[in-house]
Design a protein that fits this description.
Layout (H helix, E strand, L loop, with lengths): L1 E3 L4 E9 L3 E9 L2 E11 L6 E2 L4 E5 L11 E6 L2 E3 L7
Antiparallel strand pairs: 1-6, 2-3, 2-5, 3-4, 4-6, 4-7, 7-8
Length: about 90
């Protein structure tokens, strides 16, 4: 399943994480970052400029995961925030 960016930004991490497996982090500026984990395949690299809606990965079951799914998160100044208000 395609994983798409929820906002425009720049890839600050694209690689392996012990817990989240194949993971992408996008820096959106103003302290906001989005995290996409447990992917099967990454389609972006560090430094890539990403537009909202761009496919950045294919979902999967990598890292510490018991079934295929996407771990999605938003951080503000390094602290997790509830993503609900930011999703359409």
């Amino acid at each position: 399943t395609p994983v798409v960016s929820t906002a425009t930004g720049e890839v600050s991490f694209a690689g392996w994480d012990q817990d989240f497996g194949n993971m992408v982090i996008i820096d959106h500026g103003n302290g906001f970052k989005t995290v996409y984990g447990h992917n099967q395949k990454l389609l972006v690299s560090v430094g890539d400029k990403i537009l909202k809606g761009k496919t950045i990965a294919l979902s999967g079951n990598s890292g510490k995961s018991s079934a295929p799914h996407l771990h999605y998160g938003i951080t503000k100044d390094g602290e997790p925030v509830d993503p609900t208000p930011y999703l359409e």
